[in-house]
Design brief:
This is BHLH domain-containing protein. The protein is mainly α. The chain has a domain at 43-82. The chain is 50% helix and 10% strand. It has helices at residues 31-42, 52-80, and strands at residues 2-3, 10-12, 21-23. The chain has a three-stranded antiparallel beta sheet, with no helix packed on it. A hairpin with a 6-residue loop joins β1 and β2.
Length: 82
């Protein structure tokens, strides 16, 4: 869905809990900085991290943790026949 507002940019909403994309032009600051802030909000425990390298390591660890959880849940699902 694409909506038009007062010309301030593009606003797209997804279904349920999917990500929404907001383009604010120059108001939102540097695009990379804005994306890094979004990553910090998405990954638990990374809000206070200032260095990019440390942030990337934290994100990598979080992704590995999520993958391990998925593997465990799949194994349990297969074991119990769900």
């Amino acid at each position: 869905m694409r909506t038009r507002g007062s010309g301030s940019g593009l606003h797209v909403k997804g279904r349920k809990r999917r990500a929404k994309v907001v383009w604010l032009g120059k108001k939102g600051g540097n695009g990379i900085e804005r994306k890094l802030r979004e990553l910090q909000r998405s990954v638990p425990g990374s809000q206070g991290i200032m260095e990019v390298k440390t942030l990337y390591q934290t994100i990598e660890n979080y992704i590995i943790l999520l993958e391990a959880k998925v593997t465990i849940l799949r194994s349990l699902s297969t074991l119990y026949g769900v």
